[in-house]
Amino acid sequence: MDWGNFSQWGHRAADWAAEYHRTLRDRPVRPALEPGKVRDAIADSPPEAAESMEEIFRDFEDIIVPGMTHWQHPRFFAYFPANAAPISVVAEYLVSSMAAQCMLWQTSPAATELEGKVLDWLRQGLGLPEGFSGVIQDSASSATLAAVLTMRERALNWQGNKQGLSDAGRLRIYCSAEVHTSIDRAIWVSGIGEENLVRIPVTGPNRGLDIEGLQAAIELDRAEGFIPAGFIASVGGTSAGASDDLEAALAVAKAEGLYTHVDAAWAGSAMICPEFRHYWQGVEMADSVVFNPHKWLGAQFDCSAHFVADPESLVKTLAIQPEYLKTQGADGIINYSEWSIPLGRRFRALKLWFLLRGHGMDGLRTMIRNHVTWAVKVHDAIAAMPAMEIVTAPMLSLFTFRLVPTSMKGDDEAALDALNMRLIEAINNDGRIYLTQTKIDGKFVIRFQTGTWTMEEQDADMAISVIAELADSLLQAEG
Ligand code: PLP
Q1: Quick one: pLDDT band at residue 408, thresholds 50, 70, 90?
Q2: Helix segments in 237-280, DSSP class H
Q3: Which of 295, 258, 239 has its CA nearest to residue 175?
């Protein structure tokens, strides 16, 4: 294949994509597949002679597609969504066709300038105050790592990159017990070390960290000679939407001179709706905030929006300028590779620009509001089922529940865990919906979240009937 017949195959791919999405609702969300089946269907060595596009495309349809879990399926209620709005898919296609490296302004002037603009559109959409500057990172994990490195460098008077950590004293970073594992990874990779990540227990219905516990931990560490360096807040934790009281927690952290980062990877998208902003009230005090438009908002993966109050600290931490990367004579330009860990950068701003223009903030707000309404509908129906227990109430569109039949009330938790494992297995093997599990206070529970781009109310209704039907069958089968 070459550019001569690209148009033919581009059309074929577009037709395939449209048909795939038209029929997605009729497919199982997750394939019933034996591990190794796809691997066995693929040749063990690369072909010596070129194969025809016809053959390659046929194998894609016959081998690959049946082996995929369908993340864009309207009844994908597992993990968090990874929405790819059709308009963002088109933008990605254009980006792939230009295939520019967007590391410096001069390697991609339009991409750089558009990135600054659309991140400012997003800042306004989220209600973040002026003064926050944005950059697109590949993932929230990278944004958090960049923030943790900034915490480290700032606490070490910007000497850590040069001198290493051997004689640095022990830095401490604080967070709640419910943060995502990307925080652990950032602590490992930064060299700060897991033992120096201080996890404060959570309290209350929002599962936010205990504020007095945070204050006490910082004071104790100082008294013992540690160096408190940073605080990472959670808004919309992965298990059950755990959200810290930002106003109180950031006030403590700032008064203690810590660099602060807010992980709102999933829930951040909902902050385009003013009525949900109470979940991150006080966010304007943060030094760094990340959320993923590639989760709920519809900007195809990958696209992580990272806002910082003082870009200078980030740039002082990450910028490196060998002669071959120096740009001459253009004062005031931004080279976004100095704001992120990888040097090479894709043109990610285009899909955001297309998305925000093609749907408008209002269209995106309607989608988020519908998802929250339908999650509450499913929650209310499950709460009304006599054998079900709601474990955590809806945080936006996420809640958790478990099966606790009357006959098993008072049974040990291990038996209930095993029962709920059997229930989620039955639900996912059935294929009509897809859910995942988590642990809440040591109990095995089932997570339910709504959020896929094409979800409709009928999909919420289907979820209610599948859960009721399969829980009933399980209880009957087990007597
Ligand atoms: N933070 C939270 C709360 C998440 O739920 C996730 C992923 O689901 C992440 C961070 C990591 O996001 P990414 O895959 O963009 O690194």
Answers
A1: confident
A2: 246-255
A3: 258
Whole-number Å distance, alpha carbon 309 to ligand 1 midpoint, is 21
Is the bond into 302 cis (omega within 30 degrees of 0)? Answer: yes
Mutate to test the pocket of ligand 1, among 137, 207, 238 (most ligand atoms within 8 A of CB): 238
Q: What Rg value do the Cα atoms of the chain yield, rounded?
A: 24
176 lines ligand 1 (CB under 6 A): no
Of 246, 242, 291, the C-alpha closest to 269 is 291
Strand, coil or helix: 259: strand
Domain ranges of the chain: 6-79, 101-346, 360-478
3-state secondary structure at position 93: helix
Is the pLDDT at 329 greater than 60? The verdict is no
- CB 426 within 8 Å of CB 68: no
Q: Whose CA is nearest to atom 14 of ligand 1?
A: 139
From the options 1.20.1340.10, 3.50.50.60, 2.10.270.10, 1.20.1250.20, give the CATH code of 6-79: 1.20.1340.10
In this structure, whether the domain defined by 101-346 belongs to CATH 2.40.10.330 is answered with no
CA of 463 to the centre of ligand 1 (A): 25
**Residue type at 104?**
L
Q: What is the full DSSP assignment across 355-424? A: HHHHHHHHHHHHHHHHHHHHHHHHHHHHHTSTTEEEEEEEETTEEEEEE--GGGTTS-HHHHHHHHHHHH
At 103 the pLDDT is 92
Q: Are strands 227-234 and 171-176 parallel, antiparallel or unpaired?
A: parallel
Determine the distance separating the centroid of ligand 1 and the alpha carbon of 448, expressed in angstroms.
Answer: 17
The 8 Å CB, 24+ separation contacts for 153-162 are: 153/313, 153/316, 153/317, 154/229, 154/259, 154/313, 154/317, 155/227, 155/228, 155/229, 155/230, 155/259, 158/316, 158/317, 161/317
Tell me the whole-structure pTM to 2 decimals: 0.95
Domain with residues 360-478, CATH architecture: Alpha-Beta Complex (3.90)
